[in-house]
Input
Amino acid sequence: MMTEGRGDFVEALVERAGRSPRRILLPEGAEPRVLEAADRLLHERAVEPVLLGDAADIEASRQATGLGRGASVVNTSDATLVDRTRAHLTERRKGKSDRADRIDGWARDPLHQAAAMVATGGADGVVAGCVRTTADVVRAALVGIGLAPGIQTLSSAFYMVMPQRADRSSGVLTFTDAGVVPAPDVDALVDIAVAATEARRRIVGDEPRVAFLSYSTKGSADGPSIAPVREAAALFGDRMPDVVSDGELQGDAALSAAVAKRKCSDSPLRGSANVLVFPDLNSANISYKLVQYLAGATALGPVLQGLAAPMNDLSRGASPEDIRLVAYITALMAG
Output
């Protein structure tokens, strides 16, 4: 998930999150990596980590590792918590064909319990996935929290912390969607861009400048994959007129002022995009990995975007440092 050389941006996450500390749920609370991350978070005092899980299992893991002893614990076997989660999910699933035993199973699941707690104001965000699968995390988020108003597509982004360069206004680029939607249509591309814009404002704290990417720059080529990008760029401009955006653009025209001057001199971005909206999952996922490994960028993510409240996924290979940093990102997304 993350590489060395994180730079000033990552250190700034702690400082910015600490201005308004948030309660972040860790529903894999007996996992030693989670306990180690909780220790760091407790020491830095910028986020309040809360461990969810079977209380006996968490205590046994604390005793074995000596970690996480200062973090508060929510016992997922607690009958009151199960009842509250069941009531929330039953209300959320009205009109669906879920059987009662399915909802009851969800009500006893730490991921669904955590999602319900965030949705009902009991916490500010969730970080999970170092033990459970991405599918489990996404399902719990959609069932228990749901999408933000006006958004119909759950998506994700990687925050690419780039090596310093004098010709780039921001050292952090948003690559979206590199993890969830394989082949977005026009409406999904617009949703992805909107969600990425809102998330970036909270996570990075700057003003998004959005480029819809293609192998064509402003009509320099034509083909069936270009028209949806062009249409999405126009619809996004109508939907978020306060955001500087353009498309369709090739990557160099989106990121280089010199290239933009030659290829699209009338582009409002002028080669200074910081949110890159890719036409599909293939191109986004390939690109972020190439930039990570060839350019030495740090890839933070995938960050889930478009939810009504933040719930973020981890790689099952996540380190304690990964968990720590995603907890700070989640806290900032909570606003």
Remarks:
- The chain has two domains: 7-146+308-333, 155-299.
- DSSP finds 13 helices and eleven strands in the chain.
